[in-house]
Amino acid sequence: MTETAIATTNLGRQYGAKWALRDCTLRIPAGRVVGVVGPAGAGKSTLMNMMVGLLHPSEGELEVLGERVGPTSVLERVAHIAEEDALCRNFKVTDLLTAARLFNARWTQRIAEDRLRERGISLDSKVGELSCGQRAQIALTVALATTPELLILDAPVTRLDPLARKETVSALLAAQAETGCTVVVSAREVTELEQLCDHLVLLDRGELRLAGDTAELVRRHQLGLDELVARHLAQPVG
Ligand SMILES: Nc1ncnc2c1ncn2[C@@H]1O[C@H](COP(=O)(O)OP(=O)(O)OP(=O)(O)O)[C@@H](O)[C@H]1O
């Protein structure tokens, strides 16, 4: 495993004349739980989609697990859960697992079956008839069963009620502790990721505002994490 999970140098992506993310230089150490935080439109999904090869950078460089992101690459060591709930609702859970197995060389069926059994989710359930929290657990199960070295989740807790949120947070922490994988997780509010991330990347309006080990940032600035984030966001246009 590499020491650096993700390294970017002056990374940027534009849509037409508008920059969704610009001049982003970062180093994310491996084996951490990283919160990518910022308000709507900050550039979080843009950054994460570049990390998983769904978007090409317009400028700059990006290395994931020590390799350039490309078609024959590293991506089979990376799992991604997109912001939208993209599970096929007409499928049974068992069909989802079969499809995932076909597409993933690193798939481990036992991980998927054990996790779902522990959560009381039947393989015969129809995905569309499960709750939002259960669908989040299935998405996470499919991701973990691909035995990723890097797990990237776009806003996984935003749509969940507090109980499902707590369950997802503990599942992520347990998975990280068990496998040592790097977890990158986004949210609009740092409070959504409380007790989860030990490394912070703060974006606002396409710019990197702050990055580093959370405990170190808090110690250096002598501020709570929420206040630190609030102070580093751009002032409202007035
Ligand atoms: N396909 C696209 N075409 C044009 N502009 C886009 C496109 N996708 C994103 N953008 C713009 O890029 C900027 C960053 O968007 P992005 O989705 O990365 O933000 P985000 O931080 O993930 O926001 P949210 O929390 O609302 O999901 C926004 O201004 C958005 O309007």
UniProtKB/TrEMBL annotation:
SMART domains per UniProt: AAA
Which organism is this entry from?
Allokutzneria albata
The record, for Pfam families, names:
ABC_tran (PF00005)
Report domain ABC transporter positions: 6-230
Keyword terms: ATP-binding, Nucleotide-binding, Transport
Q: Which GO terms describe its molecular function?
A: ATP binding; ATP hydrolysis activity
Query: What name is this protein filed under?
Result: ABC-2 type transport system ATP-binding protein
Family per similarity comment: Belongs to the ABC transporter superfamily.
